[in-house]
């Protein structure tokens, strides 16, 4: 029963459609990890069951060989006893000849018994041999499937990492999109423009203040000239322009 159960598990796992299982799984990576564990455990169980089955098969084969060999030996003994009986009968020793004939009959009976045992074991050996071959094929199929699972898992992990890297690159490129005013670069450019505008405003304000200062200097110059002419009027009596 245990061997049949192992054989059934091997058959089920070998026939399993990995891609279909992955399509139905919410988390393909977890599904693959679980499948790898299941296959690894099942392979270990199958190897143990197959080893036991092979061991039993070899015992049956040994018993069969011993029965065949024993049958041959009893046949040889029967032949030797029969020939001895013929020799004794040829010389007129009928009593001893009958004894050896009886021994030949006993040997023949033992030969028949050993042949029957060997014949009875043969179908079981054939059946067990077929089972062992199927188990071996199934085990090899499981090992191939396990290799596929591991490769699929590696492929899935690589694809996941690639997709993650692509998303990071996409996010990074998006964050520095020069045409996007909401991007980090756009916000930084806006800040620079505001600072530039502030600096321009300060320069304009400073220039305006400087012009006012020069204008005040011109006013001072005019007042100074008026005062000079007034002094000249007082001293010279004439109110004309001062010669220079």
UniProtKB/TrEMBL annotation:
InterPro entries, per the entry: PspA_VIPP1
Keywords, comma-separated and alphabetical: Coiled coil
Coiled-coil boundaries: 132-166
Highest taxon, organism lineage: Bacteria
Family stated for the protein in its record: Belongs to the PspA/Vipp/IM30 family.
Protein name: Phage shock protein A
């Amino acid at each position: 029963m245990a061997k049949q159960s192992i054989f059934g598990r091997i058959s089920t796992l070998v026939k399993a459609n990995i891609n279909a299982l992955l399509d139905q799984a919410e988390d393909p990576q977890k599904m693959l990890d679980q499948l790898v564990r299941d296959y690894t455990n099942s392979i270990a169980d199958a190897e143990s069951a197959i080893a036991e089955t092979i061991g039993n098969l070899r015992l049956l084969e040994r018993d069969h060989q011993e029965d065949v060999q024993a049958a041959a030996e009893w046949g040889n003994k029967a032949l030797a006893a029969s020939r001895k009986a013929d020799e004794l009968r040829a010389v007129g020793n009928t009593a001893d000849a009958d004894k050896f004939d009886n021994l030949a009959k006993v040997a023949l009976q033992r030969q028949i018994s050993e042949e029957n045992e060997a014949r009875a074991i043969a179908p079981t050996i054939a059946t067990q041999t077929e089972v062992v071959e199927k188990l071996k094929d199934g085990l090899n199929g499981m090992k191939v499937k396990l290799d596929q699972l591991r490769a699929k898992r590696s492929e899935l992990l690589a694809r996941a990492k690639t997709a993650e890297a692509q998303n990071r690159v996409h996010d990074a490129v998006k964050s520095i999109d020069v045409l996007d005013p909401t991007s980090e670069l756009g916000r930084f450019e806006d800040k620079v423009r505001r600072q530039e505008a502030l600096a321009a405003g300060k320069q304009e304000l400073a220039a305006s203040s400087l012009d006012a200062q020069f204008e005040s200097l011109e006013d001072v110059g005019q007042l100074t000239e008026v005062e000079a002419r007034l002094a000249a009027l007082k001293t010279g009596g004439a109110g004309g322009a001062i010669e220079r």
